[in-house]
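agent> step 3/5: call structure_predict on target 'CUL9 protein' (Steatornis caripensis).
agent> reason: downstream docking stage needs a structural representation; sequence fetched in step 2, passing through unchanged.
tool.input:
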Amino acid sequence: LRLLPQQRYLRVEKAEVSALERKRNVLCCLITRILKVEKQLHIDNLVFRVIDACRKGESGPGLQFLSFCCHSVDVLSCVLHLLNQGYLRRQEERPQVLEY
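tool.output (status=ok):
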């Protein structure tokens, strides 16, 4: 019986998955932090504010070193995730406005 060494690409995939999870967690935290302050915000304004905060590295206390590139698709995906989890909600009369 001969054991093969662990494949390198498996470690790379695990690292990429971990990086994507961290990015999603940071984006979700930014979204909730912004909406906690604003209480309600148009979804377009929220996307621009999150992208701007990522670009400037304003991820919050203890996370200033996390300056990374994010796109509107990343932010919208996190918004949908938070809506499904019940952390955010849409206004009935104006569904483009999100509330915390």
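agent> step 4/5: record observation. The longest strand covers residues 40-42.
agent> proceeding.
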